[in-house]
Amino acid sequence: MSDPAKSQFMIKPSHRLMAGLVLALSNFMVVLDLTIANVSVPHIAGNLGITPDQGTWVITSYAVAEAITVPLTGWLVLRFGTVKMFLFSVAGFGLFSILCGLSPTLGMLVVCRIGQGLCGGPIMPITQTLLIRVFPPEMRGRAMGLWAMTTLLGPALGPIIGGTISDNWSWHWIFFINLPICILCILAGAKLLKPVETQTQILPIDKIGLGLLIFWIGCLQLMLDLGRDRDWFGDPMIVTLAILAAIGFLIFIIWELTEDHPIVDLRIFRHRGFTFGVIALALCFGAYFASIVIIPQWLQTPMGYTATSAGLVTAFTAMTAITAAPFVPRLMGRVDARIMVSGAVAWLGLMAVWRAQWTSGIDFWSLAAPQIVQGFAMGFFMIPLTSITLGAVRPEETASAAGLQNFLRTMAIAVSTSLALSVWGDAQRVSRNELAAKLQPDDVQRTLTNAGMSMDQSRQVISNLVEQEAIMLAVNHTFLIAALVLFVAAAIVWLSPRARPNVDISAAH
Questions:
Q1: Of all helices (H) and strands (E), which one includes residue 387?
Q2: From CA 391, how far away is CA 402, in angstroms rounded?
Q3: Which of 194, 296, 302, 427 could form a Cys-Cys staple with 477, CB 3.0–4.6 A?
Q4: CA 52 to CA 186: how far, in whole Å?
């Protein structure tokens, strides 16, 4: 592989900015697609004639596929070249985006979202690698800052863009808008990035490990997505999937620990700082993303919000995160990273407790308030925690540690989406039964009848009221569980040793 210190001089200074913008835009597109479909799930479900729960497969399938390809990125760029792999990934992402928008059924949409994830997974780490090769050391800080801004802007704009498009045009266009971005990035990337192409070499690939990884993750995600509709372990199919996932996972661990060229280097978990750091990362990301999934669905279904308004409420967190992010590097090295992470994660937990006090009569700005306040903690969680995890491993293990960290983070998003919806659905049923037991329908029905309603109308009003309040109580219950998970994550951080100073986090992706 060519030396990045030398390859930077092969790009004209006048082209560096354009190359950096192309790479940042590509990363933005991939991150955007992780959240752009969240607020569009009700539109997709209504159009395809499926339940909202089934509509969330559009989210989880993308995240799982993306997680699977992340460990493969290192082998892919060595085998085919960094620039070629980047262009191929963007082209594949654009192709599957078109197919997603043309999908007439849920099955085709999920398959195409998997294709999107498989092509989009390598784009994030590859763009970081290319930024390091494009810019000289004295400019990399600003270049990585631009890249980091797109990572924060993606989740912020995703719900807003997705909601606006779904309300004013059609959900199909949340995928079609990727096409012009892909064409621009391919044409510009092919011209600008050619000088920093890397040498290729044929390396062995852990085919059995890759097969085991796909197998146990697939069984686990199918169990989580189908379980809530099939009475969980009361269904033989769910039991079978659970057993297969457990067996596949155990065999995968044994194989990876004994393989000379593992697809996932599990030996990195011997470092205490990395282990507890990524556990905290997974728990925090899972609990955080659960709210991004539940809030839009709750606001659009019983609360009557448009997708645009629901997306705006969801997006406030990332907007304030952008304003706070510049202050984080100034504190790095001066303050123990564990203090910053633990305080930020506990702050997120308090915001979850705040959201657990919501009522069905809440107004827009009362919904937005905890989202706005929560955003100020996001940067103080992500960047310092990366320094803890990557600072705990050996320098030659940094790339593998960063890949494994991103894999677990993406998997946490997929798993938490399914679990949060399951918890929310179960809590709705329990709350509905409890409300029905305490309600005195005869007295209420008599009052409504005296007010001029017919018998059927009064029954429908009572049913709607019970359903609305049951959903609201279930939302509160889910947020309380999320708060508990966040408080646990804040405590787990302290099981890691103090991060060493001057950690290079450029390999994090």
A1: helix 378-391
A2: 11
A3: 427
A4: 35
Locus of tokens 């309603």: 453
- Give the domain ranges of the chain: 1-204, 206-262, 268-509
Distance separating alpha carbons of residues 15 and 380, to the nearest angstrom:
33
**Pick from 119, 139, 127: nearest CA to 33:** 119
Residues sharing a CB contact under 8 Å with residue 146, sequence separation 6 or more, in sequence order = 20, 21, 24
**Helix 57-69 / helix 106-120 crossing angle, nearest 10 deg:** 30
Two tokens, residue 306: 């448009």
The yes-or-no answer to whether 1-204 and 268-509 have a common fold is: yes
SS (H, E, C) 113-126: HHHHHHHHCCHHHH
CA distance 176 to 107: 19
For the chain, percent of residues with pLDDT exceeding 70 = 86
Handedness of CA 56, 57, 60, 66 (dihedral sign): negative
Q: Tell me, what DSSP letter sits at residue 335? A: B
Which two three-digit tokens encode residue 394? 């050996």
Give residue 237's Cα distance to chain centre. 27
Burial 83-115 (b: 16+ CB within 10 A, else e): bbbbbbbbebbbbbbbbbbebeebeebbbbbbb
Q: For the chain, how are helix, strand and coil distributed in percent, rounded to 5?
A: 80, 0, 20
pLDDT tens digit string along 335-347? 787 888 899 899 9
At the topology level, CATH places domain 268-509 in: Growth Hormone; Chain: A; (1.20.1250)
Residue 156 pLDDT class (50, 70, 90 cuts): low
Listed residue (31, 34, 42) closest to 295, CA to CA:
42
Q: pLDDT digits over 28-45, tens only?
A: 888 888 777 777 777 787
- In whole angstroms, give the CA distance from residue 429 to residue 431: 6
Helices (H), 207-336: 207-227, 236-258, 272-300, 307-324, 328-331
Is residue 194 within 8 A of residue 83, CB to CB? The reply is: yes
Nearest to 404 by CA among 246, 280, 267: 267
CA–CA separation, 433 and 370 (whole Å)? 30
pLDDT tens digits for range 442-488 = 666 666 666 666 666 666 666 777 777 888 888 899 999 999 999 99
> Please, are residues 6 and 134 in contact by the beta-carbon 8 Å criterion?
no
| Residues 1-204, CATH architecture | Up-down Bundle (1.20)
